[in-house]
Amino acid sequence: MMSLTVSLQVVPGHLDEFVAAIRTNAERSFTDEPGCLYFDVSQDKADDHHFTLYELYADEAAVEAHRAAPHFKVWREAVAEHVVPGSQVNTLARRLFHHSPEDVR
């Protein structure tokens, strides 16, 4: 499995538009892409214009399918408009293990 962690800063005054755009991207990624297993969007408690996205994909081919999806093009347009240039940091990694309440039972 591959994890993608994205950290970014939203342009002041663009918060509502950004949230609408990431909500649509997250929903479409999860519902339209069989290889997208998880898509979490978090808003920083101390800085409401800072967001972290955590995405989990079945494999690298699923990440590439995500980047090729029609809704991803719309998302990239939203990023250009609503995200502070140079603030987005993407980290693609292999997921090694996971812990959850189900794991302990």
Features:
about 100 residues; four-stranded antiparallel sheet; Alpha-Beta Plaits; single chain; alpha+beta
Q: Can you tell me the CATH architecture?
A: 2-Layer Sandwich
Q: How much helicity do the residues have?
A: 40-55%
Q: What string gives the helices and strands in order?
A: EHEEHHEH
Query: What is the radius of gyration?
Result: 14 Å
State the end-to-end CA separation. 23 Å
Mean pLDDT: 95
Structure, explained:
The protein is of the alpha+beta class. It has a single domain, classed as 2-Layer Sandwich (Alpha-Beta Plaits). It is built from four helices and four strands. It has a four-stranded antiparallel β-sheet with strand order 2-3-1-4, covered by helices on one side. A hairpin with a 6-residue loop joins strand 2 and strand 3. Helix 1 packs antiparallel against helix 3. The chain is globular, with a radius of gyration of 14 Å.
